[in-house]
């Protein structure tokens, strides 16, 4: 008997004890009743079952409190003691928030790292049984949790509510919120309230997954960056693979590419990737572009090529065949007589390049080359030789047009990857110019890829250290939607309140869609270094549908690097050490069935 059916029957039995015939009638009716549709079959129940779990976390620090005299906030240290969240009647030593007409007490809590979820608040016993009103403010930075909605610093409730009021019941608890946060501010709303606050816990929602991939080197900063990128994507692996847990809680297909590279490097073949790709396909029937952006439809196809290379699921690839063929045909209509792309819809690479038409054209031309190459390869796999030949010829045609006037690092990187620009010259003239200025966390991954093609592995490692590492220096536990290295010069870390004369790295900066506190501090597209370090430093590339792996390590200036990588045969273990002569010694533990190509 399903658990819900049993509980419903038990409830009816217990509430009808006053009349035996009512009990019997209720039992008969319940026995003949139809269950709600979501529970009507095992198939439906499975379809609606969340892949996530929930854990409860204790705050590890009080960042700020409105009163330190003990008059309005008593025993605040009790908030930092682990609680089971269960209220009781014998709790005289609880934290108390006491308000007057002139003072509404508040506290700002730090849970130590970015998480996805909400907050559970429990109240103990008090003379009045009225519920207590609290204002809750979530923040990815301490200052965001202290902010007001709107204004120049642009705090919002968009995508997920992060600033609102609740009522906490007498001798009970309430759980609210589903957003990305590290900090929570709690304030009493009304005057003349004495609230025994029993416990405050973060309700952490995540997929309970093992980290099958790993990375360790003699550089602790790189190790921390690898793990931070992995954790950033892990938080965004909810029902679908989102780009952000505060915003954007959406499947943005272009943004998925760095994310799926990280998923493959850390978690392996996880269902969240095909689930998200299929959602994007079904939500955007042709001739629509995915997310209204032409390049994002191209990323969809490129991702499918990568996913097949990794795992070789031919049945899944065949499911994409009708859409894939139609998409290639549609894209082929957007090439002019000079072999230049003329794509319509949203013309977008990343935000920093968006005002630069020359950069956008250079990037889109490069993406067209990469897309038709990927499409040709997939059609070969699908045993469509004529179409494969046709679209290989389209890619060759597109290479005859060389965009001019581009100086952006992002578009230049894409031109290198598409074979439209020389890797070494581009690296020296554009990618390395002015260090890590004018980078983006999204296309930073492709800049690293282009530097690898130029054999500048030490330079790429320095980019990772100086750009993504600067976010760690500012208190990041996940990587951000965007980051301008120039903004960090006078900035206060995100886990502190900003003193006079210092900049608020969250509220004072940002442009385009991420002005001020709207800026997401957990964005999956920023995880590129995790995949890059596994692929290029550990030297692991899955090929032939994941039946084989190429091993080609590049330590740059590192003394050693070791780690693991998930494959469809199991976990590959690898270690590289540089000897006194500068030679690299590699040792492997290879899962049975996996071939190694060197």
UniProtKB/TrEMBL annotation:
It comes from the Bacteria. Gene3D superfamilies: 1.50.10.10, Maltose phosphorylase, domain 3. Residues 212-537 form the Alpha-L-rhamnosidase six-hairpin glycosidase domain. GO terms for biological process: carbohydrate metabolic process. Keywords: Signal. It holds the Pfam family Bac_rhamnosid6H. Residues 1-19 form the signal peptide. This is Alpha-L-rhamnosidase.
